[in-house]
Design brief:
The complex is a heterodimer of chains A (about 300) and B (about 400).
Chain A (H helix, E strand, L loop, with lengths): L1 H29 L7 H18 L3 H25 L4 H20 L25 H5 L4 H20 L1 H11 L1 H6 L4 H27 L11 H11 L4 H23 L6 H22 L2 H5 L16
Helix pairs in contact in A: 1-6, 1-9, 1-10, 1-11, 2-3, 2-4, 2-9, 2-10, 3-4, 3-9, 6-7, 6-11, 11-12
Chain B lengths: L6 H4 L40 H12 L22 E5 L9 H15 L4 E5 L6 H12 L4 E4 L4 H10 L4 E5 L8 E6 L2 H14 L4 E6 L4 H15 L6 E6 L6 H13 L4 E4 L5 H9 L2 E6 L10 E7 L2 H13 L6 E4 L5 E3 L8 H17 L8 E2 L5 E3 L7 H5 L8 E2 L4
Parallel strand pairs in B: 1-2, 1-3, 3-4, 4-5, 5-11, 6-7, 6-8, 7-15, 8-9, 9-10
Antiparallel strand pairs in B: 10-12, 13-14
Amino acid sequence: MDVLAGLIQTAFLAGGVLALAALGEVLAERVGVVNLGVEGLIALGAMTGIAVVSVAPVPWLGFSAALLVGLVAGMVFALATVVVRANQVLAGLALTYIGLGLAATLGKPFSGSPAAATFAKVDIPILSDLPFWGRALFSHNILVYIIFLALPVLVHYVMFYTRHGLNMRAVGENPAAADAAGISVMKMRFWYTSLGASLAAGAGGYLTLAFVPSWSEGVVSGRGWIAVALVIFAGFRPINVVLAALLFGFITALGFVGQARNWPVAASVLAMLPYLGTIALMILPVLAWQKMRRIMAAPEGLTQPYFRDDR
Amino acid sequence: MRVAVHAPFGIRKLCIPKEAKSPLEWAGTNSKEVSSMFSTKDLSRRGFLNMGAMAGAGALLSGTGLIRPASAASPLAPIAAEDALIAFGHTGPTSDEGWTWAHDQGMKAVEAAFPGIKTTFVESIPYSADATRIFRQFVSEGANMVFATSSYGDFLYDVAKRAPDVAFYECDGRAPLDNLGNYYVQHWYPSYVAGIAAGAMSASGKLGYIGSFPVPSVYSGTNAFLMGARTVNPEATLQTIIINSWFDPQAATQAGTALLDNGCDVLFGIMDEAGYLQVAQERGAKAVMWNTDLRRYGPDAYITSVMVDFKAFYVEQVRRRLEGTWTPTADLLPLSGGVDRDAWGATVPAEVAAKADMARTKMLTEGWNPFVGEIKDSKGNVKVAAGQAMTEQELYHWNWSVEGVFGLDS
């Protein structure tokens, strides 16, 4: 039981990076912009978080700074993809490498020392002391609750239960129709792409201030790409994407536990588990239920730059 | 496993040389003047996945005289310090606080020892044709001596072959030339010493290990660590988790958590960062690290570290190069001559430290080799007969687990 509680705890902790970054990507993709710069944004945010707390040891300050840096980087990206209408894939890849390079260069002085301040566990009276659930669910830092509870519910509500959310989705599905209805496609795309980038960088801040409390070049290790993939896997839905991140974190942790408990399965097979699981979960529901294909489909206008004249 | 867009980290060490030029060419017979250093040939910590076959073949042939001794080349001509350019090619970033950082310290020692000398370095060189380009660039910039601080195999070999006036060194190299040598460390001795302390400090007798790949460095590290631990706790076992990377703090953190959840209370590993030390600190467990002093990441958890120190080696080789006495060597830097335990952590009891240090002193003063039979593998077969001592080459190429090590041999 202790092992299972530990598994769930690690799933939340490790899944947090993926969940926040993927949530940001959902925002961008729902308005029709695919941002492949997530890996670089996480690196930027991770470095920023550590750099800021090394000056002022307040974790919130570091996390906010990461969000802010992400917002600025996102605005540059949005300027390129939404205003100038450059190719989204190329601009995204460029953002990844710029982010990784900038973070590596600017982060040099901060690598090699532990984070000066981190998000501590929140002790919830009674709940944290529960035998099993206490460790699994109620012994996390505050960011975990924000990432897995508050944010996805908020985004889900705005996206599916408000007029603004309807407009937002319309921009992603059919920008021409949205434009005709009087919605400013450019404004909507610009701000949600920037906000999404901000969350991705926030995932970096979470990484170095709550999960692995130190910065070094390469600390992201490809998790940004997983986040992009999870968005597709979760059918571009905020709550699903967070659950998918949790599942991914859980299966990854399960692979390690399998090794630790010496299951008679090769380590390389256990390392494949998260990916096998992802593929299986993408294929099986569609095979079983054809309608899933439509429900899980990408926004129609994804990656399509919008020109008013060009119908 | 990772989506390796940042190539230097994702795939940098997962490399299989297409064609091992001459694992058998190198006799390792020119370990002339550095008496305490042992010669070596193929693999090392940054070793390769196909080491089994090569190591086996090497071990077979080395005793039979079938191997051609390294040709006794005449030393390269001397160079004035102000004309000298010493180049370093690294596998990771110098800021990694681990392997590459330690090599970078070596470069700084060279700069301090030879004022007026010029140095240059490139970080995060991928294992690809890019490496050839970078090493070739060193040569065209006028480098007199090039250190590759990880194995680049053919990518370096081709460059060295075309630049006979430049001295090359390859950490864990296997294909020597008249101007290409190699070097590595005997990390199994400090691992054994650290294992004694770990065994004494483990209440559960369950040790955990976070490994990169099932390569000889991981086998020799785990085996030596457990053999040390078993001298104080004969029932101790060691559980290994392989994370398929030398540097992935997120995976190492998860792996460390999984090990602690499964009853381990002392962690060891071979990582270029401090992820699992931070986990141990948070969970009140203990940890032994690699490469450098990392106690600031977990002052209460820190037992010691397998410290690598290439400073003296680099200074010595550069000196020989400048003097015009340099010929390639194949060196395994010994205990206290390039690899050692770090100063004991704050929470290590004095009697535990003394006990472990007794073994270390014995190794240093008497040349004691603790790797003496009878040693059984994880399946119970006797691999080293009673009374027989394992040679440095066997330790270097270790590719089976001793009894009590789980997770590597499956």
